[in-house]
Design brief:
The complex is a heterodimer of chains A (114) and B (116). By secondary structure, chain A is mostly beta strands. Chain A has strands at residues 3-5, 10-14, 19-21, 24-26, 33-38, 44-50, 56-58, 64-68, 73-78, 87-94, 102-104, 108-113. In chain B, a hairpin with a 5-residue loop joins strand 7 (65-67) and strand 8 (73-78). The chains are: A mainly beta (114), B mainly beta (116).
């Protein structure tokens, strides 16, 4: 069965420190992987995606993610966290059956403290 | 270019009442989706559409109906609302054409629905 796991409900980071939000997946075949961010009372905003190619993917707002096929992981990273990065982050994988359907993880709340 | 818009933003219903949520997109996307978001459960797909006049069931379709009479609009209906349908509802769209901007979904701002 296809699934996405975000093992941490919340991640706390001090401003200026590097951050990592973890994501692991389970799919058959080659995965198409995505990260989205949700600010309070807003819709989801697309951050980045991995389809093929370089395992390190760069996205919006200085975020990047590393695809690791052997560990079936797609962790989101940023070298230096900002207080404004505080939000809810969702990892997603493209579902089988086409039509760009996505399976989402439960989400990880990132809190960046001054 | 407004992207994906949703109306209304907020709604309170009594059990048994009906309502329709409207989603509109101006990106000429073929695919559209309705999700519900509940705490600790991420987003779950209710229904989706792969083109004008088509609809299909997602993961949690019970209690909902949808229609896609025009390419740019995707309506979600609740015929007889139940407290279990209290949630935040998101509409999204995506582009099936290979190339930049493909595969990812673009989301509306959401509708917060409370059923009492």
């Amino acid at each position: 069965a296809q699934s996405v796991a975000q093992p941490e409900d919340q991640v706390n980071v001090a401003e200026g420190n590097p951050l990592t939000v973890k994501c692991t997946y389970s799919v058959s075949g080659n995965p198409y992987l995505f990260w989205y961010v949700q600010y309070p009372n807003r819709g989801l905003q697309f951050l980045l995606k991995y389809i093929t190619g370089d395992n390190l993917v760069k996205g919006s707002y200085g975020f990047e993610a590393e695809f690791n096929k052997s560990q079936t992981s797609f962790h989101l990273k940023k070298p230096s966290a900002l207080v404004s990065d505080s939000a809810l982050y969702f990892c997603a994988v493209r579902a089988s059956g086409g039509y760009n359907k996505l399976i989402f993880g439960a989400g990880t709340r990132l809190a960046v403290h001054p | 270019n407004a992207g994906v818009t949703q109306t209304p933003k907020f709604r309170v219903l009594k059990t048994g009442q009906s309502m329709t949520l409207l989603c509109a997109q101006d990106m000429n996307h073929e695919y559209m989706y309705w999700y519900r978001q509940d705490p600790g459960m991420g987003l779950r797909l209710i229904h989706y559409s792969v083109g004008e006049g088509t609809t299909a069931k997602g993961e949690v379709p019970d209690g909902y109906n949808v229609s896609r009479l025009k390419k740019q609009n995707f309506l979600l209906g609740l015929e007889s609302a139940a407290p279990s349908q209290t949630s935040v509802y998101f509409c999204a769209s995506s582009n099936p054409t290979p190339g930049q901007g493909s595969y990812e979904q673009y989301f509306g701002p959401g509708t917060r629905l409370t059923v009492t």
